[in-house]
Specification:
By secondary structure, the chain is mostly beta strands. The protein has two helices and ten strands. The two termini are about 30 Å apart.
């Protein structure tokens, strides 16, 4: 079970995160990460386990300039209609999400809507920059897919589905449009 929260504002068609929190519970293991993104570079407020105590996690602060938290990064990829590479920092690792291909797509999901949705499907690669352990380099995914849709009332795109195939199984996330 994992919960991710990103707090921020949308300004000039970009989601600017000021606080990120992730909590993870898997069997007997649990952990969390909280990062203040108001600072440049972003600062870890609280973490368990704490990557600041692990020399494998050292990241040059210049790599953190203009980095998004993972949720903000995905949202910004959608806001930008999959046009640019997005820099991500999750407190342990720094990576880029780089779009390889974008195509019109019809998404059929009873979870999202009774009707089919007109979307864009964006295939992307995950460029690993820094902070990965050898084990993570071997096991963590290198590619994924995101479906984006234009909001019905507002003039911006947002993610509706994210899918990443991993060695542990399929990571799948659906995001419903909220009524405003």
């Amino acid at each position: 079970d994992q919960t991710i929260k990103s707090f921020g504002i949308i300004k000039n068609n970009k989601f600017i995160s000021y606080r990120y929190r992730s909590s993870d519970n898997r069997g007997k293991k649990s952990g969390h990460m909280e990062i203040n993104f108001k600072n440049i570079p972003p600062l870890i407020i609280s973490a368990q386990p704490d990557p600041r105590e692990d020399p494998r996690r050292e990241i040059n602060s210049s790599f953190l300039l203009d980095a998004n938290d993972p949720a903000a990064g995905v949202f910004n990829l959608a806001l930008d209609q999959c046009k640019n590479t997005v820099k991500i920092y999750d407190g342990k690792r720094r990576y880029n999400i780089k779009v390889l291909k974008k195509e019109a797509s019809t998404l059929i999901s009873s979870f999202l809507s009774e009707n089919s949705l007109k979307t864009y499907k964006c295939n992307y690669e995950i460029e690993r920059i820094s902070g990965y352990t050898k084990k993570e380099l071997e096991k963590f995914p290198k590619q994924g897919e995101i479906w984006i849709k234009k909001h019905e009332k507002l003039s911006f795109f947002y993610p509706v589905k994210i899918q990443i195939n991993t060695k542990w199984g399929n990571f799948l996330c659906f995001i419903k449009e909220r009524r405003i």
